[in-house]
Fold these 3 entries.
Entry 1:
Amino acid sequence: MMNFVWLLAVEAAETVEEGGGLFDLDATLPLMAVQFVLLAVALNALFYKPLGKVLDERDGYISSNQVDAAERLAKAEQIAKQYQQELAETRRQAQTVIAEAQEEAQKIASQTVAAAQQEAQAQREQVQRELDEQKSQAMATLEQQVDGLSQQILDKLLGSLAA
Amino acid sequence: MALNMFTIHPLVLAELEVGQHLYWQVGGLKLHGQVFLTSWFVIGVLLLVSFLATRNIQRIPSGLQNFMEYALEFIRDLAKNQIGEKEYRPWVPFVGTLFLFIFVSNWSGALIPWKLIHLPAGELAAPTNDINTTVALALLTSLAYFYAGFSKRGLGYFAKYIEPTPILLPINILEDFTKPLSLSFRLFGNILADELVVAVLVLLVPLFVPLPVMVLGLFTSAIQALIFATLAAAYIGEAIEGHGGEEHG
């Protein structure tokens, strides 16, 4: 097959003298070059420039959007961090408030308890005092009666003796 | 002789016409008409698709705009990889047009049954099937990288001829000739060979057998477009950056 084609090519090449052949260079060459350059210019205006501009613009659009998004992401993260910090701060404050309140309540409670105890003590002491007083009064009364009774007993004993 | 054998065969479904051209005479200049006809078709397709894709540009692309943006990004990546991040932008139109023109040319040659349209002489085929087209593109590439080198480094561009040592001067000068030569012949040879193989296979076994070769041809066509554009960008990048760019070639 290759020989076949080669024969053909040789055959064709041999016909150059008659005006033709494979390697027949003529005015087609420069005109084709001019045509090609014109095509390049036309395609530059019609295809490369507008579409290239679109590609570049899209690249710019995407990258600017990306930068924007990254900025917004950083901002959001910062806000989240701030929120966390504030949350922690608030929690701590709440904790201290609770602790203070508890402390105060404790204090009040202990004060109240102490006051109540004092009062109870005072009342008890007073009651005790009253009791003691009444007891001593009663004792005194009893002693008087004891004296009277013993006098009577004595009188009775002595009277019986004397009689 | 072989040609005659094919053309007079009565049962031939596809004819092989190699080296025959539809000549146009324009002011004493000879032109290959069939090349221009298909190249105008290719140029028309490119312009039409570009127009449709950029008619109503949206920030969120869809349909054709999306597809052409994909193509543009592909071309930009290609140019960026070869020329470098800093310098590639002005060269995107040139490299991109090389790629698109060659690619659409090759695929139009492989996919569109041009041969159904009969011409007085020659036959319609991919524009890259003609040595004039590929040499034109290769010479433009040479001009482009010379321009790139001079505009970037001025006369210091000539210093590259004696780098790394002046002993390599002849080889370095020779390279300026081999670059367009290899570029043009690689493209021309691949596309023509592919077309010939398909034509010969169709000639011998008209049904189904040529299909795998046609698919391979589509692949080769795309690869050739990529290679041409990549090498052009690599040459430009090499001319711009100067040192140590020889490995690209």
Entry 2:
Amino acid sequence: MTTVQAAAEGGGEVVEADNGKFRVVVITERCKECGICISVCPTKVLVKGPKANSRGYRYPIPEHIEKCIGCKMCEWSCPDFAIFVERVGGR
Amino acid sequence: MARVEFINANLAIAEGVMAAGLRFFAGYPITPTSDLFEYLAVELPKRGGVVIQFEDEIASINAVIGASWGGAPAMTATSGPGFSLMLEGLSFAIMTETPLLLAYIMRADPSTGVPTKSTQADVFQARYGAHGNYEIPALVPWSAQEAYELGAKALWVAERLRVPTILLSDATLAHTFERVEFVPVRRAERKKPRVPPEEYRPYEPEDDLVPPMASFGEGYNVMVESLTHDERGYYAPTNEAHRRLIWRLVEKVRRNWRLIHDTKTYYMDDAEVAIYAYGSTARAAYAAVKELRREGLKVGLVRPTALWPFIDEDLKRAVGGARRVFVVENNIGLMYKEVARALRDKEVVSAPLIDLELPTPDQIIEVVKEWRR
Amino acid sequence: MEAVRRLRKHPLDGLLRPERLPHLWCPGCGLGIALGAILRAVKRRIEEGYLQREKTAFIGGIGCSARASLYVDFDSAHTVHGRAIPFATGLKAVRPDMKVIVIGGDGDIAGIGGNHLMHAARRNIDLLVIMMNNMVYAMTGGQLAPTTPTGLYTTTTPYGNPERPINVVKLVATMGANYVARAAVTHPPLIERYVYKALGKKGFAFIEVISTCPEVFGRHIGMRDAVDLLNALRERVVVKQRPHIDESYYEWEGGKFVLGEYVDKDDPSYLERIGVIKG
């Protein structure tokens, strides 16, 4: 697993990881720590991360990215447009 | 020569606004306004416009606001009870700087009152009926001919200044059939953006304090915002942004008053006494002035064609050297308060003559003569 | 750990005003889930060439749900409480080439705006109205909504709601709308599918989205945690292919929220009837 930081559209940072097939990207400043993404993931890729964003919310990290199957339930269920899943290497 | 018809003021308004380019009407039936609505329901679709009867006046004015953002010169018409329901929407139109025309055909007095008869009770309702700090124009015709002309002008003012504008007529005019000549009128047009969408800000004014207006569907991604907003239309709950917006909304109308006002004077050149009257009551006042002149009294008539915004300097110019001013109106003496304030150095007399038909010239002559003693 | 500067863009950022994010909705609020699903449907329609972005408008009234119009980068309006549907009707009447979408809450659409909803459905005016139903007045702090289930506590019914909730799905169906569906934030792809479908309809299309408000609704019923409330709703929803309209009534205690497409027909729309668009 690699966790990198990158600039997100509209400012802020992202935390991301990929497993060679899918990349999970968390736009940390948008997260409000509701926990929905963690709860809906069928393979338990996400865990609450150790760090908080500038508003004090502890955003999730794709700790177990190797399990990601690209179903996008986290992306579709996130109320804050703070997480999304991309296919890797498709381009 | 332009077409001439024998019609009442309601139908004259309809003809005037169509000549100025009206494209949408929404309304709810109410006496004494419905014939205006019915006339447009027949005529406007023939000219490519849309007329919809809504479930109430609340929906009507909000539909007019939506149509206006769709780029269409748009209006509604109502009388007192319906206007009360429209005030929430009117306030929204003020805040979002939405051009619209509201033909307000006054009828008599609180609640249901006398629906088929008129007083001039709603002049302050037209000014400040809605919530919040604001100024909006209210034009006031005294004849069917002027209803045609001011109807067109009010729609033009609304579009030119991006402001909801009231045409304040009454039941007496609505029921008076007269000769109306359909003279040429100015087409109502709003200022359009002169910058590309990425630079456009929907509430950024030009020097005249009026922001150019992009309509929906033109690619500008405009934001219509009822909250206090900045020039982009984004909520801005700060004193600085709020004051800037509110003062501009008010000053936009006050500073551009010359586009709105055209105060008429009759026999005022040498007048020592002036009668201030507006709307249908000014008809009786005019007859009274002519009669008093025949009796040798130096009296004249000052007749505003717009009550609001109230412009002191315009009134002072019209009244000129007259020492005494009678404010004759078909209500409890409402405009008197403004006139007396503006003309502090003169003797201003209130003549509130409540009459369901119209104050007669004799009633007005009696008032003036009583004060000669 | 390797530091890389790279632009990452949420797939919906192009349809949002990212500079206004994070939005004002509380942590775990279902409204953002619903807005995401709605935008995915709009995006699919745009990518297919059916919709044009500059000819799509979002209209909201007042309330948490109505704030959706502030975050989407389209022609949009944040109007008066309850009056989004009349605004949208006027707009659509003069711009029949535009797709006009109303997003509002249950209080906005079915409470103060209920009369407009009823008549818009009866008129079969060509609009898509999406009502987010979180069963409470959320922005004002948790008061009774016309959709609050019987018995539940709100700040203005502190002894329990003595009223029955309005069944908006049945109301709109009775009034003759061309399309009526109910979805829930527990099933975002279902919201996307119904919105996609509704965007292709003429006449009045209505989608109720059962949403979750952990901050006030959840707190009142002892379920403040967003995940708990979402799961509690998940236990209560049932998806059916073509439910009968009599299955649309809901209650919270031991109740079921039947999701599905209740009405799908093609009666002549208002704009067709007045000749503004062709049938």
Entry 3:
Amino acid sequence: MTRAVMAIDERLRTVALGAQDYATLALRATRGIVTRPFYWRDTFEQMDRIGVGSLPIVLLTGIFTGMVLALQSSVELVRFGANIYLGNLVAASMVRELGPVLGALAVAGRAGSGIAAELGAMRVTEQIDAMETMGTDPIRKLVTPRLVAGLVMLPMLTIVMDVIGILGGLLVSVMRVQLGADVYLRGVWSAFAVSGITFGIVPRDFVSGLLKPIVFGGIITLTGSYYGLRAGGGTEGVGRATTRAVVASSMAIFASDYFITQLLLVLLPPPR
Amino acid sequence: MSRAEEHARAIRETLRRDTRGRPASLVLNAPKIVELCDVWLSFETPVLRGVDLWAREGETLLVVGESGTGKSTLLKLILRLLTPDRGTVRVFGMEMPRLSFEQVLAVRRRIGMVFQYAALFDSLTVYENVAYPLRENTKLLEPDIRHIVRERLRFVDMNPDVVSNLLPGELSGGMRKRVGIARAIATDPELILYDEPTAGLDPLAVNTITRLIRKLQVELGVTSIVVTHDLRAGFRIASRVAMLRNGRILFDGSPEDMVAASDPYIEAFLRAS
């Protein structure tokens, strides 16, 4: 019994220390955004890697998500004679949830694992120690550029994913459901209009759909960096860090998605 | 002649041969650049148990001992990559554990470190690796950086025209070590730390590296702390030797005194080297 309590105590202590380290990393990386020195070259390089590099996987994920969403929904909508609402359904689903979440998961699998593997390899080959001994703060040099890249590129990738998903839905709508493109697109527009307008001009769905990827971008890059910087035990340790980074960031994406949605429903309630 | 006597004779011969050209072995009045006082450190088990050690300006301190005795840990303490559980670590007169992170970075800029496996940035070319500390820590213009990088590469017997654009993955172990030394001396550090500089190298490469370390002593008068278990190579460069055993300093003195020591453990260590 005592042993079990001690094991739980030890585990909780490890989790608490891990959370503290993660928070410290996040704070120091964020401070690097607003204080000198800035590593612009590294930041643009990371934007290229995380943003442009993830574009193919986001395009593929987006188009097939939109297509399958339209296909599955049409089966049900046709039964009720409501297939004219296909555009509404695809657009609302893509912009509110599927675009941000599936896009983030795709980026977590590709770029998040890459960050953990790269920093992990640098850690086990003492390259990070070397950087520190030469007077460079590795968090500013390695984590902040990745964080900035994640915060900037994830919303852009999500916009691409939303657009391509809606276009995928249009393809299925025209070719499989025999619904006119004009009807589908009118549905898309009406979905945004129905969701309400925030700040006098921005459709409410856009706010929620773009706030989420900013948070997800932070989660993916910080989690990948956190596990990469803590990697130890040679190549096996790097592999472990990579797996943990992807699993942890995926879980964090799902969990934070719920809480952001809940928060936005309170802060920006939908029109009645 | 017994095997042990043969070993002792070989080491004495090395010392006799290499004392020539070595700078004055003990710089008695020079200030202490590095000072560790009663340093204790534990991970899961105790690693250092009350270590007292110092290095004076201009001397080359060799730290020897079996694997796992905490030799590399000493270097990490000096750089404050680790902090001691107890005791003080002073570098250039500053108490490292008490400094802010920015102050630590400033101290580290005055130190060069040569890692066991060179720790070159594998995404950067040889040129970019050597230029890295100059770009990070100085406001030099690119033509000046190029001049220094080429000079440092020549200092470590490498042809800058041939190696500058190579990636670390394209270099042999000895070449990587030499690039590591060129990078460590790029900013003219006052102190250079070497972690197993000859580990994993063939005898010719070992000669090249020890010759380079001596060249740095003689030509630049740099203070060096060399951690190694390669005594034969270490004795060629050391002005003082400290031996770690069970987390404590077992011996601290000149290489000649170490060879003459009657401690059975030291004798066994010398015989095995």
